[in-house]
């Protein structure tokens, strides 16, 4: 039985209109200030009377460094002509290095609400959440981070009923809430999901039988095979789904449980996106050598080929997002027949797969004369028999003194001890082998096994666990 289409296509804009506004926006032109909301009808009417036909290919790629330099100026300029500071919704990044001020991105408040409604409909169309679902979201609130209200509204847009767990709720209170309100789903970033799940795994069998959890919706960071396996050991008959988004693009795609299940052992995640809401291009990695070029001759890659993801939002009009190099490594693919069969034909004809491989293609670090490619380390940490739920690598000066030439590689690990995992002693041997630890450098290798998530360094906004921190660069 297919799901009936419920997307209100008026939640998206025509590409030519978006490009017309972009042509007079300071992100993409020499215009000093963005338009105000009341200016849009006038600008669009003028555009439609003109003979100018804007093409997406005529716009250069937009790089984060240049974009945020302009954003920094507009954010603090109180000139009454500055439409950037008027009727805007402020999104902030939730990751990063864990220090410094978060980057912000402003969108039109009404456009933000429309986008959330459309993505909520997308979740419902994909069978992720809908009427009858009661979801408790644990997304962080506080500081400037907006994940809590974002995901609450998106889930409500799918038809689900949402309970928001405040930052002061202890885990026993969360469990009592899940039981009392007969909640069947939990949402949060992968770390929050695992933290609650680990607590639930320690409860009595009688207490666990009172839980009705059959859906998990995670965001913000990938989930490893060990994490998937652990979730399935805690909650029987569980459907695990994911939503992807950013401060710049907002929420733009989702991975239904069927896709998440089939890719959990892979080094990528498949997300379903709607081409009526987001236009995606994938460019060769060579574009990274052209940051300062106004125009480049490099063309987008065909479907199936891996490169850097470039986003053009069809839901952002007043502050457009045009050909934005978001940093993700991606390839584009047609919708699988298994998914297409469960979605209305009207929606399925517009849906496509974005296969996201992550952001760490070129991140690497050195320690004690050895050079470590971060993707290789990531792959090792996903080894199922190791049972690693979360890890963190910290490169720091010995004793915290930058005048000390000794560089310590600190590794913090949280693991489960489900059947099929090696012993802690066995894992220690494997980790020492991975990082080339011998008698001559073992005093600079600091391996710490944690009992919970409290021992990890978190980002200042989204409270995410940062996988790699280089304190020698502070």
From TrEMBL:
SUPFAM superfamilies: Acetyl-CoA synthetase-like (SSF56801)
Residue numbers spanned by region Disordered: 82-101
Source organism superkingdom: Eukaryota
The protein's name: AMP-dependent synthetase/ligase domain-containing protein
Native source organism of the sequence: Penicillium fimorum
